[in-house]
Amino acid sequence: MVPMSTIGWGVLCGLGLGLGLWAMIAALPALRRPRLEARLAPYLVDVSPAARELAWRRRPAAPLLGELFGPAALGARDAVLRWIGGEASVALRLRQAGSARSVEGFRLLQLGGVLAGGAAGLLCAAGIAAARPVPVLAWVALSASFAVAGFVACDALLTRAAARRLSRIAEEFPTVAELLALSLAAGEGVHDAIRRVARASSGELGAELRTVVADVGVGVPLADALERMARQLRLPALVGFVDAVTGALERGAPLAEVLRAQASDARAERKRDLLELAGRKEVAMLLPLIFGELPLTVLIAVFPGVFILRTGM
Fold this sequence. Notes:
By secondary structure, the protein is an all-alpha fold. It has helices at residues 4-27, 36-40, 49-57, 63-84, 87-96, 103-131, 136-185, 190-200, 204-217, 222-233, 236-251, 256-311.
C-alpha cells in the first residue's frame, strides 16, 4: 500500500510539471496573428484603462500566470479599491473636507495608522503574554486586527470630516444666498456680489467663494470656476445655485428672486432634516428610559415594601 504522503508529493510534482509544460507552450510564438486590440494595447496604455489591463494580462514574462490569475487579481484589486476607496474617492473626500493634504500624503497617514495599530496589537499581545502563554498565531492575529483597525480609522475620520464640512456648508448656504440676492437687488453684478459676500463671510462657504474669486482673478471664467467648485463639493444646493448663476450669465435672466427661492427651499429642507433627526433622537432616548430609569423606579418603589414584609415591621 502506497503511503498517503507519497501520493501527496506525487500530486504536487505532477501539478508542478503540468504548469511548467503549460508555461513553456504558452511562451512559444502564437500560431495565429494577435487580435487588433492586442496589437493596439501597448500604444494606448497612457490613455485607456482597458488597454492597460489588456497589456498587463498579456505580459510575456509570465503568460500562463497572467491568463490563469489575471482576472482574479484584477477583480481583487477592484474590490480592495472599492473597500479602501480609490484615488478619486480619496481626492474627493479630501477636497470636501477642505484638507490641503494630497492623496499620497493621506496614504502615508494611513500607513502610519497601520504601523501604529500593529505596534499596539503587539503591545496588547505582550501584556496578555505576561499573564499567560500566548500562541504565535494569536500574536499575528492581534497585530493584524489592530493594523486593519488603524487603516479603517483613518478612512472613517476622513469621511466624517468631509461629511461635517459639507453639513456646515449646507447650513451656511441659505444665508449666503440671501446676501447674494440683496447685493444683486442693490444693482451689483454677479461677480461683484460674489466678491462682496466672500469678503464679508467667515464660514466654509465663504472660503469656497473666496477661492472662486481668486480663480476669476487669474483669468478663469466665473461660470467655469463655479462649476468646478460644485463638481468638487457635490452638494445639491450648490449645484442648483451654480446652475442658476450660469443660466443668468448666459441668458441674462433675473437672479435675485431665484436665489431667494433657493434660500427658502434650503431652509425648508434643513428644517425637515432637523425634524427627522429629532425623531431619531427621540427613539434613541427611549432606550435608557426603558432599560435604565424604569427598572430603577420600579425597584425603588417595590424594595421598601419587600423589606418591611421580610423584617415584619
